[in-house]
Amino acid sequence: MTKPLVTPIARAVAKRLGVDLNLITQGSGPNNRITKDDVIAFSQKQMSSSTTVTTQAPTPEVVTTTTATTTSTVSNQSSTLETKRVKITPIRKAIAKAMINSRDNVAYFSLVNEIDVTKLWNLRKEIVEDVQKTTGVKLTFLPFIAKAILIALKEFPIMAAKYDEAANEIVYPATLNLGIAVDTETGLMVPVVKDAQTLSMTALAAEISRLALAARNKTIKVTEMQNGSFTITNYGSVGALFGTPVINYPELAIAGVGAIVDRVVFNKQGEVKPAKVMNITISADHRWIDGADAGRFIARVKELLEKPEVLGVL
């Protein structure tokens, strides 16, 4: 019997999922060709079979413990539900006021770009331990992203400007103060890295870490949360792929960073390859920023993150 043909992307997916293509005897494509959907379906079937075997394996205490824990958790959650009233905290009230202020004063639009961060992933993996040993700073992906955005902001200064309604002017800053949204127990806070364009990668990472810790420990100063030029919010840290971030008015734009995920992509030669992919969203005020300018800005950020070796040079 002649083996069915396999599409290139199906081969790539099979390699990624560890599927033996010889076990798939017939595909759903033309002339029984095996497609990526066939590979995914076969992989899911294998996983389902594996789960069944695990459930019946001679270690019932593991399964029982998991089941009991799950049941107990659901039961406890149900039993603690109750009608109650909670006073709005001053921080939450301030957040609400800022959100409404932004909604009422901004003509919103958002652009999303998909970025191949495979090189960045590998570069960070290669240097993270040495940098931490040498400087005591743990490099996450955020400082790289912040550095790329800072470079792009210098090239597209309108993205870091503010609107002065009283004077009816657009105000361009002499320095870049970068806001970093931080998730805390008391609510969202946005510490500001002052003169961020002057900092090296490790200095930027250290300052972001210091400010985030101060925000979470409630020791941050009011002055450390003022006079931002542009804000980054990293909802990828909780697994979100993309969003439409809210501008920290009177700033004119904000960047939202999604989670890094594994994808199968085509390179410039049309070849299929596995990649680390991340989405970045730019929300901007359409009254003062044209879509084309925001598009060029986010394209520049993409270019820099896909060539991370230049981030320490520019």
Automatic annotation (TrEMBL):
Its cofactor is (R)-lipoate. One of its GO terms (molecular function) is lipoic acid binding. Signal peptide: none annotated. The keyword Transferase applies. Residues 50-70 are annotated as: Disordered. InterPro entries: 2-oxoacid_DH_actylTfrase, 2-oxoacid_DH_E2_comp, CAT-like_dom_sf, E3-bd_dom_sf, PSBD. It holds the Pfam family 2-oxoacid_dh. The keyword Protein transport does not apply. Residues 5-43 form the Peripheral subunit-binding (PSBD) domain. SUPFAM superfamilies: CoA-dependent acyltransferases (SSF52777), Peripheral subunit-binding domain of 2-oxo acid dehydrogenase complex (SSF47005). This is Branched-chain alpha-keto acid dehydrogenase subunit E2. It comes from Mesomycoplasma neurolyticum.
